[in-house]
Inverse folding.
């Protein structure tokens, strides 16, 4: 198997059909498998994945209680590809996606390469870095940093599709997503804080200083700039005040 797509999902039924069509259309002709771990979604996600799997034998659908990181690791453990691809189930991929994949296999398959909404990792580098940890927040950065320490992490800061996430629920505001119930939003917010504590060693890393020297131009048209991020350094007091505001906001949501 050349390529294993490993992903996780929770309540993304609004995007799944368009997401799958974009993946399978873009990768037509490639030897790949698609493995998704669904975190006991409460919408139609599981039905949609299982319907697709019935007509696409290279898809596996697993149902596990998991975080984003542990779900992707479970998918990896059920995969067999020499290269691992990580995608997001709420992203609809565009024509640049296939060109990115082709450029990677032509020239960069000895490296781990992260674009916006898609990462490609040689299996041995994923294993050498220790794989994904059980995180929702910082789960991607956590792996990037460990692979960067191996000397083989590169970035291509170009979006390869359109994210269908709620406009107010990007990045660390994911807990505001309409995918979650009111109690679910609170649990997500508290889990975010726990993840930030667990990854406090990488919170101090200047991501821009890490990524910019290791950014590569695949010459696919768009010129890579800086990595999009909403991280900002705050003192402990500033963080506590921000959390208090978010906690109050979450309580007031219907």
């Amino acid at each position: 198997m050349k390529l294993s797509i490993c992903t996780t999902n929770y309540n993304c039924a609004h995007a799944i059909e368009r997401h799958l069509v974009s993946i399978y259309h873009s990768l037509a002709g490639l030897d790949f498998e698609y493995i998704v771990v669904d975190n006991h979604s409460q919408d139609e996600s599981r039905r949609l994945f299982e319907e697709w799997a019935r007509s696409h034998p290279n898809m596996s659908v697993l149902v596990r209680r998991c975080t984003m990181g542990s779900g992707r690791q479970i998918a990896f453990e059920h995969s067999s590809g020499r290269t691992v691809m990580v995608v997001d189930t709420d992203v609809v991929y565009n024509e640049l996606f296939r060109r990115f994949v082709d450029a990677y296999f032509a020239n960069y398959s000895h490296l781990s390469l992260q674009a916006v909404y898609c990462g490609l990792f040689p299996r041995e580098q994923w294993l050498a870095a220790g794989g994904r940890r059980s995180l929702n927040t910082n789960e991607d950065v956590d792996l990037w940093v460990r692979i960067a320490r191996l000397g083989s992490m590169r970035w291509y800061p170009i979006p390869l599709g359109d994210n269908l996430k709620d406009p107010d629920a990007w990045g660390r505001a994911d807990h505001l997503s309409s995918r979650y119930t009111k109690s679910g939003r609170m649990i997500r917010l508290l889990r975010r804080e726990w993840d930030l504590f667990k990854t406090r060693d990488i919170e101090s890393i200047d991501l821009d200083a890490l990524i910019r020297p290791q950014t590569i131009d695949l010459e696919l048209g768009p010129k890579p700039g800086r990595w999009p991020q909403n991280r900002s350094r705050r003192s402990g007091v500033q963080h506590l005040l921000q959390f208090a505001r978010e906690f109050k906001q979450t309580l007031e949501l219907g």
Observations:
- Strands lie at 3-9, 32-38, 59-63, 83-87, 91-93, 112-116, 118-122, 153-159, 161-163.
- The radius of gyration is 18 Å.
- The chain is about 45% helix and 20% strand.
- The first helix runs from residue 13 to 26.
